[in-house]
Amino acid sequence: MEFLKKNWSNILFIIIIILLIIPQTRKPIQVGLNQIIAFSPSKISEKNRESLNDYNWNLVDLQGQPLNFKQSIGEVAVVNLWATWCPPCIAEMPSFQKLYNEYGDKVNFYFVSSEDNGKLQLFLDKKNYDLPVYQPLSLAPEKMQSRSLPTTYVISRSGKIVVNKKGSANWNDSGFKDFLDELLEEEY
After folding, report:
1. Concatenated DSSP letters for 80-106?
2. What span, in angstroms and rounded, lies between the C-alpha atoms of 109 and 106?
3. How many angstroms separate the CA atoms of 76 and 180, rounded?
4. How do residues 123-159 score in pLDDT, each as one tens digit?
5. What is the pLDDT of residues 4-54, one digit of tens each?
6. Whole-number Å distance between alpha carbons of 145 and 80
7. What is the arrangement of strands in the sheet containing 66-68, beginning at the earlier edge strand?
């Protein structure tokens, strides 16, 4: 008993390390930690915003219906590049689902993954998500290409990239929703 009292922090540290080594427990721990440390995404200052001049991006939804990102010209769009194996991606999905529930009829959402259709649908079904998920049929516009997952872009009606967030974030934050409301009020 004396040994436990003196070494409880070392024992706890060893248990955490062991849990992080085991694949079945590592992913949930990583997801949980990402959710704890996720903050509202930062917007790009107006002087540093780049214009998205090329909207040509062929996508297909999970039912096989093709569409082109050009349909978002003049609209506010949220584009999330993600994967089912990515703990930070999984961590931010609940906040995206809440945001989509509230803004899905006002903002164009694109959750883009290169993974297998069946794997994506299984993930959505298991988590009870109804997010609009797409697979790319061509390369994303140059200014929206990223090697990091997750990466999320928010495009204004005027085609400005106003958010370029790499890593997880809390997308259902009141500050971000206020920002989306401002973008929706902009004239095209």
Report:
1. EE--TT-HHHHHHHHHHHHHHHHHTTT
2. 9
3. 8
4. 999 999 999 999 999 999 999 999 999 999 999 999 9
5. 677 777 777 777 777 667 777 777 767 766 666 667 788 999 999 999 999
6. 11
7. 50-51, 160-166, 151-155, 77-81, 108-112, 133-136, 58-61, 66-68
Distance of CA 167 to the CA centre of its chain: 8
Question: How far apart are the C-alpha atoms of 167 and 91, rounded to whole Å?
Answer: 10
Exposure pattern of 126-140 as b/e (b: 16+ CB <10 Å)?
eeeeebebbbbeeeb
**Which positions ≥6 away from 164 have C-beta within 8 Å?**
44, 151, 152, 153
β 77-81/160-166 pair status: unpaired
Per-residue model confidence (pLDDT) at position 34 = 61
Report angle CA 98, 50, 137 to the nearest 5 degrees.
65
pTM confidence score: 0.86
Average pLDDT over residues 172-181: 96
How far, in Å, CA of 151 to CA of 112, rounded?
A: 10
Q: Which two tokens stand for residue 187?
A: 């004239």
Helix (H, G, I), strand (E, B) or coil at 71: helix
